[in-house]
Design a protein that fits this description.
The protein has about 425 residues and is α/β, with parallel strands linked by helices. The chain has two domains: about 5-125, Up-down Bundle (Four Helix Bundle (Hemerythrin (Met), subunit A)), CATH 1.20.120; about 140-430, Alpha-Beta Barrel (TIM Barrel), CATH 3.20.20. It has helices at about 5-10, 15-25, 30-50, 65-70, 70-75, 80-95, 105-125, 215-225, 240-250, 270-275, 275-290, 305-315, 355-365, 380-390, 400-405, 405-420, and strands at about 140-145, 145-150, 150-155, 175-180, 195-200, 200-205, 230-235, 255-260, 295-300, 320-325, 325-330, 330-335, 340, 345-350, 370-375, 395. The strands form four sheets. Strands 3-4-7-8-9-10-15-16 form an eight-stranded parallel barrel, surrounded by seven helices. Strand 7 (about 230-235), helix 9 (about 240-250) and strand 8 (about 255-260) form a beta-alpha-beta unit. It is globular and about 65 Å long. Bound molecules: flavin mononucleotide (FMN). The site of flavin mononucleotide has 27 residues, from strand 4 and strand 6.
Length: about 425
Amino acid sequence: MPKFSFLADKPEYRFFAKDCLDAEKAFRSSPDSCVKLVRTAVDAAIKWVYANDKNISADTDNLFDLIANPAFVKIFGKDLTDKLHYCRTAGNAAIHNQKEFTFDEAARCLQNLFEFVRRIDKIYGKNFPRETFAASELLQTEICGLKLATPIFAASGTFGFGEEFADFVDLKRLGGVMVKCTTLKPRRGNDGVRITETPAGMLNCIGLENPGVETFLTKILPRIKDKMNVVVNVSGSSVADYGELAKLLDTDGVAAIELNISCPNVKDGGIIFGTDETQAAKVTDAAKKSTSKPVIVKLSPNVTDITKIARAVENAGADALSLINTLMGMEINIDTWRPTLGNVTGGLSGGAIKPVALRMVWQTAQVVKIPIIGMGGIRSARDAAEFFLAGASAVAVGTANFAQPSITMKIADDLEKYLRRHKLKNISELVGKIKA
Ligand SMILES: Cc1cc2nc3c(=O)[nH]c(=O)nc-3n(C[C@H](O)[C@H](O)[C@H](O)COP(=O)(O)O)c2cc1C
């Protein structure tokens, strides 16, 4: 079997290396998952080639077209581009449950992928100087007393506990990692299908699966606390739960607590608090009274007027706001007539929600004084710059991490270039500067 581990030692390939390693790992358990993940890795590697080879370009995002581009075929040869086409077609069939794959077919996909990344390494590998990260003053900033190397966070639920991304991201270069939601007791999450791809986004109904706060504090936090700014995202079923969680997390290694009052995928809590001003204020107050850590309240877009909730939690003492969480959505399988997701509905995230998120950040920034961490569909420095202009003091990247595990680093690099181009000395000079 191919061994993709050589990729992990080469930071220049972080854009697609994790996907390749994931595909290889999945081969042992499920050919279908392996075929799906090969497709993800092939897509990421193709995009990497287009981003890194100045001699080719395309004005399309369609991966089949990118493979068929004569300039691309010239570099990699018809034999290999046919193999990439095969991987993508197989991956699509696996994703849409049109076919079950055998181990031999999964091995063929994996082998094709391996041939592709080896060829990439042969063609481009020698040109890369080793990357080193030096903190740049352009992006350094501060939010509720926290000093941040960059104003770019990883959004909760899309970045695990951060350590999973250590091979691809300089964790200290992030403002922080909003780790997967923690609850008082461990949760199994929802049954059935939990994730489905949508045009320019995804629907998820994970249902707050997590090992519980005790395991987090005893097993996970000691491992990650020196590696990054740890922002702990918490969710409860009652106001008292939030207070208790905030108290338990008032401990060394926790940079801030993010109250998830906006999860649309669980019945017992979360969004109930995020859609009612009084409840939102009570939860904020309970957490503030129980901890010395900064309290960030994460707002739901599933409301008529987000500014009312924002004001209520600011008045209750919130140190910062993060917005937005996912938008409630659904998908139906027209062959089975059943909802695709086990939970029937799920949360929509990714590029598709960016205009909604941006609008809500802009509206909220006009009515609160506390800093806002903007998120929702951010995939590039351009997207991030829009959020800063709308009034966000920092941003968080979620769904885009699945497609490109190293995307936060690219956003940081490109944001620096953007600031230089506009002759700005620090990111704070951009915040709220929309001319509207
Ligand atoms: C698979 C998945 C799991 C998520 N889990 C959480 C969570 O545990 N807590 C939370 O506050 N938000 C969670 N979110 C919401 C994200 O943190 C983020 O607010 C949202 O996805 C919008 O950003 P994006 O479009 O960049 O992904 C999750 C999102 C996804 C896609």
